[in-house]
Amino acid sequence: MLRPLRRDADPLMSSLAALVASTLILVMLTPTLPTSLIAFCLAGVANAMFFAATLAARSEYSPIEARGQVFIWVGALKIAAGSAGAAVAGATIAQTVWAPLLLATALTAVAATTSIIERSRPGPSTRPPDFNSTLAPTCPQHVGRGHQARAKNRCQSHAK
Fold it and tell me: Domain range holding 138?
């Protein structure tokens, strides 16, 4: 990516998932090899932006003490999902070549739409509260350090 994400990672993932679904639809609609290459390139760029947003969301929402574990488990889940997707693609490709791509596009579009609708409903925010302005100056462990506590229950010096 040429520049950092401009919005919060969590809500940005919904719109980027919709962008990925849109570019996959574009891939299915391209009639020639050159246009297919361009469409696949756009889908790859959209997927890279989505992946960057997922990494940023993991960093922001995972507890500091378990951040490494969160990254490892999500990576393992992605590998398992990729393996399951390859198995489903192998089973569905016998019908038509585009069936696996159509299935992946439909699932991505449904997930993005569901997420966008869920976010538009009024209710409590899913964003963690920002305690940086209140905790950082009073916590000697965090003053002048590279990381800051996201919530009181994540800062060991405030757990007492």
Answer: 130-160
